[in-house]
Write a structure and sequence with these properties.
Elements lengths: L1 H41 L6 E6 L5 E3 L13 E6 L15 E10 L2 E4 L10 E2 L5 E2 L4 E3 L4 E2 L10 E9 L8 E2 L3 E4 L29 H8 L5 H10 L1 H8 L3 H12 L7 E7 L4 E5 L5 E6 L2 E4 L5 H16 L5 E3 L2 H17 L5 H13 L22 E5 L2 E5 L5 E5 H15 L11
Parallel strand pairs: 2-12
Antiparallel strand pairs: 1-3, 3-8, 4-5, 4-7, 4-10, 6-9, 10-11, 10-12, 13-14, 13-17, 14-15, 15-16, 18-19, 19-20
Helix pairs in contact: 3-4
C-alpha cells in the first residue's frame, strides 16, 4: 500500500516539474523578445546588425604582402546580429559590398588615414570591394602600399564598413598591428632555417654585417655551406665567425635546427671492396654500404655502429672524395650500377689504361713494361707474344696457344695477371 502512495506522489511531482520548466522556458523567450524589441528601438532605423572581422590579425604586417591573420590564415568578414551574435543570412545586407580603410593609432587617438589626391590608394585592392555571400566572405590579396610606412607611428588598425546599405551597419576594426617595410622579411630570423637560406638568417648574423662578409669571403653563403664547413673544419669556421662563445653556440644550434633535406653524403673508404659510410649534413650516420648493399644504422650491431662513427672524421678530412646524392634511392642505384659495371669489366685507373694501350702501339710485347720487377719472381706469368692486326690482335699465350681477340680483352687479361702477381714483386714499379 505504501508503495502505491509513493508512486502516485512521484508521478505528480514529475508532472509539476515539467509544467514549471515549460513556464520558465516560455518566460525566457518572452523576455528575450521584449529585450530585442527595446534594443531595436534604440536605433533610429531599427537595425542591430554589425560587421565582425574574425581571425585575429597578425601582430606585424609587411607592405606589399597580403594581409592575413595569425597563423597565416585569411581574415573572414561576417555580418552578424548585434544581439544574438548569429550570422545574418536572409537580409538584403547579407550580400552587400564591403570596403576597407586604415586607422592610424597614436597617443592622440585613432584617425582614418586619408586618401591623398592624385596618388594611388594606400590599400592595394585585392577582391575589393568585397561582396558578402550569405553574410560572410574572406579577404584575399589585400595589401598596404609602401607609402604608409612614412606615417608615424606606423601602427594601424584595419577597418571594414558596408557600402550602400539601406540601414545602418556598425563598422568593424581589427586589433592594432605594426607595419614594416617589405624588405624587412630579408632580415627576419628563422627558428628552423632552410639549407638554401642566406647565413644572415641565422641568429647573431646581421645582413650586410661583418660576420656575413667574412663568411661570404670564405665562400660560405648559405646555411648549407655553413654546416658543411662545420663538419670539415669546425675551428676554422669558428675563427671566421669570431664572436663570443655563447653567440657562437647559438649560431651553430640555430643552423643545426634546419629543415634537413633528403640529401645524403657517401664516403667510400675502401674502393676495392666499395665499403663506406653514409651520413647527412648534420654529421649523423645513416648507414654503411658494402658493394651494392646498404644497411641502415638501425639494423647495425653496436660494434658496426661504433665503426661507422669512427669513419666520419676520415670523410671530413677527405671531403673532396665524398659524393652527394639528392636522395637515398639515387645512392642505391649508384651502388647497384657500380657493382654491375665492376662485375662486367675490371676497373682500370686512367694512367694504367693509357699506358697499356700505348704499349700495344709501340711494341710487340706489353710485358716489356714490367721489367722493373725481378724476372725470377714466382707467380709472374710468361709474357704473351702479341701482334696487332687492325682493331684486333693475334697472340700466343703462355701455353703456346694461338688466340685472336679484341685489344680490350687482352688489356683486361694482362691487368688481371699483373694484379695477381703484384704482391709477389719485391717492389712496386712506378706504374702503380
Amino acid at each position: 500500500m505504501d508503495d502505491q502512495y509513493m508512486k502516485i506522489v512521484e508521478e505528480e511531482l514529475e508532472l509539476e516539474k515539467q509544467r514549471t520548466l515549460a513556464k520558465v522556458a516560455e518566460g525566457y523567450e518572452s523576455a528575450k523578445r521584449r529585450i530585442y524589441a527595446r534594443l531595436k528601438s534604440c536605433w533610429k532605423d531599427g537595425s542591430t546588425m554589425k560587421l565582425e572581422l574574425r581571425n585575429r590579425i597578425a601582430p606585424m604586417i609587411l607592405t606589399r604582402e597580403e594581409i592575413k591573420g595569425e597563423g597565416d590564415v585569411p581574415i573572414e568578414v561576417a555580418l552578424v546580429d548585434d544581439v544574438t551574435g548569429d550570422v545574418v543570412v536572409d537580409e538584403p545586407e547579407a550580400s552587400a559590398n564591403i570596403d576597407f580603410f586604415l586607422l592610424n593609432v597614436s597617443e592622440a587617438g585613432e584617425s582614418i588615414v586619408p586618401q591623398e589626391e592624385g596618388k594611388k590608394p594606400i590599400l592595394a585592392a585585392g577582391n575589393v570591394p568585397l561582396q558578402l555571400h550569405r553574410g560572410v566572405a574572406k579577404i584575399n590579396n589585400l595589401k598596404i602600399r609602401n607609402c604608409a610606412t612614412k606615417i608615424k607611428p606606423p601602427v594601424f588598425k584595419l577597418g571594414a564598413r558596408v557600402v550602400g546599405a539601406s540601414v545602418r551597419v556598425k563598422e568593424a576594426t581589427t586589433e592594432a598591428f605594426a607595419l614594416k617595410d617589405f624588405r624587412q622579411k630579408y632580415f627576419i630570423k628563422h627558428p628552423n632555417p632552410s639549407l638554401s637560406d642566406q647565413v644572415s638568417r641565422l641568429v647573431f648574423i646581421s645582413r650586410g654585417g661583418k660576420i656575413e662578409k667574412r663568411l661570404n669571403d670564405n665562400s660560405i653563403c648559405t646555411v648549407e655551406d655553413f654546416l658543411i664547413r662545420h663538419l670539415i673544419h669546425q675551428q676554422s669556421l669558428k675563427n671566421i665567425v669570431n664572436t663570443q662563445e655563447s653567440k657562437w653556440k647559438a649560431i651553430v644550434k640555430n643552423a643545426q635546427a634546419c629543415q634537413v633535406s633528403e640529401k645524403v653524403y657517401c664516403y667510400i673508404v675502401d674502393p676495392k671492396q666499395k665499403t663506406g659510410v653514409v651520413f647527412n649534413i648534420l654529421g649523423h650516420v645513416l648507414g654503411i654500404c658494402s658493394g651494392s648493399h646498404y644497411s641502415q644504422i638501425s639494423t647495425l650491431s653496436e660494434k658496426h655502429k661504433v665503426d661507422a662513427e669512427v669513419l666520419l672524421p676520415s670523410a671530413y678530412h677527405n671531403w673532396k672524395e665524398v659524393k652527394v646524392f639528392n636522395h637515398l634511392n639515387i645512392l642505391h642505384q649508384h651502388l647497384h650500377d657500380k657493382t654491375e659495371n665492376s662485375q662486367s669489366c675490371p676497373l682500370l685507373d686512367p694512367p694504367l689504361t693509357e699506358l697499356v694501350a700505348e704499349s700495344f702501339q709501340t711494341t710487340n710485347s706489353v710485358w716489356e713494361n714490367f721489367t722493373l720487377a725481378d724476372p725470377s719472381c714466382p707467380g709472374l706469368p710468361n709474357p704473351p707474344q702479341t701482334e696487332l692486326v687492325g682493331k684486333s690482335f693475334q697472340a700466343t699465350n703462355s701455353c703456346g696457344e694461338y688466340v685472336v681477340g679484341s685489344m680490350n680483352d687482352e688489356i683486361d687479361r694482362i691487368y688481371d695477371a699483373a694484379m695477381q702477381s703484384l704482391y709477389a714483386w719485391p717492389s712496386s714499379p712506378s706504374l702503380f
